[in-house]
């Protein structure tokens, strides 16, 4: 049996681009021959569920960078979430440093009032335009819409969480345009109870130290001891996945540091690199509906 573990953002789907049709075809062909495809993502399970429903996909999902597992056809299960004590420590630092943040929870996405961080959003937009051009504009527009309209805004996030202990926090995500400040935040937040890493442009994520893609994949693979495993990613949070699989692959749009430690590099996310690899090398030819061009 073959099992393909794939990151979503920047790997299976490029920001600002639709999911390549060949990626969706590859999942169906892989599953048709009895193999597994598993999304391994920093997204919360609701965002992944919405994406799969919209795209007509169905597979297992490791979400929240390993905080939970959603087996195909079953309800999602959270395994490693952030306790209130850790929330208090991290949020205290972020609010003192005036950094915008949001919580991915099992009750949606919670953030402070977005308008208080307007200057930070505009600085982020300026940096994205300078570094990425038109693609940066797309990312900035998406983030702006998301922060203002998709988050549940609270005047006092920490107090709200204290009053609602039933809400489980999968991860804390923060946005900061300054490279220097992001590195300073890393040093301030990293601890025995909080793991921090960069997941996307200008973005850091904080999770429970046991909520890693690598730990979740190792647990998943216990049920398939004879399987050959592949891990496909593009970012720092995928390094733990690379260590847990038999074959690690980075898409060509990954950073040089990520490509330097993987076994192989495949085509870019926007060109359907995940699907082209699967259809070319892992799927029997009779199962391929369309030729890989």
TrEMBL record:
It comes from the Bacteria. Keywords: Hydrolase. Its EC number is 3.1.3.-. GO terms for molecular function: hydrolase activity. Pfam families: Hydrolase_3 (PF08282). It is an enzyme of class 3 (hydrolase). PANTHER family: HAD SUPERFAMILY HYDROLASE-LIKE, TYPE 3, PHOSPHOSERINE PHOSPHATASE. This is HAD family hydrolase. It comes from Enterococcus entomosocium.
């Amino acid at each position: 049996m073959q099992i393909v573990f794939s990151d979503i953002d920047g790997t299976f789907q490029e920001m600002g681009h639709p999911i390549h049709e060949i990626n969706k075809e590859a999942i169906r062909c892989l599953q048709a021959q009895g193999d597994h495809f598993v999304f391994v993502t920093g997204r919360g399970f609701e965002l992944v569920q919405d994406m799969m429903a919209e795209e007509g996909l169905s597979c297992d999902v490791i979400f929240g960078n390993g905080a939970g597992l959603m087996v195909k056809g079953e309800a999602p299960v959270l395994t490693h979430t952030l306790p209130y004590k850790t929330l208090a420590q991290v949020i205290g630092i972020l609010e003192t440093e005036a950094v915008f943040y949001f919580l991915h929870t099992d009750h949606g996405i919670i953030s402070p009032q977005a308008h208080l961080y307007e200057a930070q959003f505009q600085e982020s937009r300026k940096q994205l335009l300078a570094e990425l051009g038109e693609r940066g504009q797309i990312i900035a527009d998406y983030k702006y819409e998301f922060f203002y309209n998709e988050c549940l805004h609270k005047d006092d996030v920490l107090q709200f969480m204290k009053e609602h202990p039933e809400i489980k926090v999968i991860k804390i995500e923060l946005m900061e345009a300054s490279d220097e400040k992001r590195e300073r935040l890393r040093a301030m937040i990293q601890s025995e109870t909080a793991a921090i890493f960069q997941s996307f442009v200008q973005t850091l994520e904080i999770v429970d130290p046991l909520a890693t893609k690598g730990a979740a994949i190792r647990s998943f693979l216990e049920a398939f001891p004879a399987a050959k495993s592949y891990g496909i990613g593009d970012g720092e949070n995928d390094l733990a996945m690379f260590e847990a699989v038999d074959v690690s692959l980075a898409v060509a749009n990954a950073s040089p540091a990520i490509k330097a430690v993987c076994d192989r590099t495949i085509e870019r996310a926007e060109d359907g690199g995940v699907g082209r690899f699967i259809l070319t090398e892992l799927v029997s030819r009779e199962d391929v509906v369309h030729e890989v061009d």
